[in-house]
């Protein structure tokens, strides 16, 4: 646990309560967590060991959010119900979660649904750069090379798009083409971390364009 409390995580704030005057979108945060998980940065950064579930379900027709792999380790990102086991260190190990993991496999109920295949970008793609907004100060951006291998790495952004028919994952804005079907339950954003991984949940000011027709997660009116 100590390694979670140094480096990147020290930039966070342990008070996870939102400010008094916030938009509906900014009230969403990582809330329900496993026993060994630490949530900081206003409820948007996960480290430690285990899972963390978002506070609002994906109820609109087309929802999108991102996660950024701030520090490598073992991680999983995707969707889960309120009944998932957040004391697991890997997502997709029960019938209540659907996750892309750091071993490049999409899991559900301990079954491998898809395995990512490494791609060999040409020289032009390898030089692709993008300006990424800083999470703490969206007005500040940095230019960075974009990983085009098709396999997530430290520093990458994973997009998660869900339209109640398919769950799709994006790597730095590019569809990984590993759709997950037949998710019938009410689901929430979920992140699992272990072995030093630090992962940020991004709900607005996205690093990459959303797929056409998708929107950031909105809180249900009845929850306000």
TrEMBL record:
Residues 1-208 form the B30.2/SPRY domain. PROSITE patterns: B302_SPRY. InterPro entries: B30.2/SPRY, B30.2/SPRY_sf, ConA-like_dom_sf, SPRY_dom, SPRYD7. It comes from the Eukaryota. PANTHER family: C13ORF1 PROTEIN-RELATED (PTHR20951), SPRY DOMAIN-CONTAINING PROTEIN 7 (PTHR20951:SF2). Pfam families: SPRY (PF00622). This is SPRY domain-containing protein 7.
């Amino acid at each position: 646990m100590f390694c979670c409390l140094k480096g990147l995580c020290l930039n966070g704030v342990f008070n996870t309560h939102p400010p008094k005057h916030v938009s509906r979108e900014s009230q969403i945060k990582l809330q329900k967590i496993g026993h060994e998980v630490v949530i900081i940065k206003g409820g948007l950064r996960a480290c430690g060991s285990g899972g963390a579930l978002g506070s609002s379900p994906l109820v609109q027709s087309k929802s999108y959010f991102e996660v950024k792999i701030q520090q490598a380790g073992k991680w999983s990102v995707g969707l889960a119900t309120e009944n998932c086991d957040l004391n697991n260190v890997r997502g997709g190990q029960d019938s209540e979660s659907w996750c892309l993991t750091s071993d490049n496999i999409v899991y559900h109920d301990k079954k491998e649904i898809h395995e990512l295949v490494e791609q060999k970008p040409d020289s032009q793609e390898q030089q692709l750069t993008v300006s990424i907004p800083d999470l703490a100060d969206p007005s500040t951006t940095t230019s960075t090379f974009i990983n085009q291998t098709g396999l997530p790495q430290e520093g990458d952004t994973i997009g998660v798009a869900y339209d109640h028919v398919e769950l799709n994952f994006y790597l730095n804005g590019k569809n990984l083409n590993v759709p997950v079907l037949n998710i019938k339950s009410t689901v929430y954003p979920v992140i699992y971390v272990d072995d030093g991984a630090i992962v940020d949940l991004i709900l607005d000011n996205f690093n990459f364009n959303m797929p056409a027709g998708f929107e950031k997660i909105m809180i249900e009116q009845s929850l306000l």
